[in-house]
Task: inverse folding
């Protein structure tokens, strides 16, 4: 996370921390606190989100029957039920029964 903030600050001048916060779905204050070691929330949740957004970790997806990135897994888990197509219904059910929830 610190690397992304630094990278964005280099590219844009300032505002890298705000951009990282937006991409992670956390407040800029939470990111600032985490970077300074003062975050009082669940740091594991924040670190998991950092890995989902910026990491290269993969997981075996039982719903798709293939290896996918943790970010893609997160995207599928967060989708609400919608009977728009058979894959979406299948993945909704598979994600509800998966141990990664």
Result:
């Amino acid at each position: 996370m610190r690397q992304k903030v630094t990278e964005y600050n280099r590219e844009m001048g300032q505002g890298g921390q705000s951009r990282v916060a937006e991409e992670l779905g956390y407040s800029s204050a939470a990111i600032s606190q985490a970077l300074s070691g003062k975050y009082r929330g669940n740091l594991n949740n924040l670190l998991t989100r950092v890995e989902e957004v910026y990491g290269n970790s993969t997981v075996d997806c039982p719903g798709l029957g293939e290896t996918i990135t943790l970010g893609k897994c997160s995207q599928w888990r967060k989708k609400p039920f919608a009977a728009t197509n058979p894959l979406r219904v299948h993945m909704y059910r598979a994600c509800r029964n998966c141990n990664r929830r």
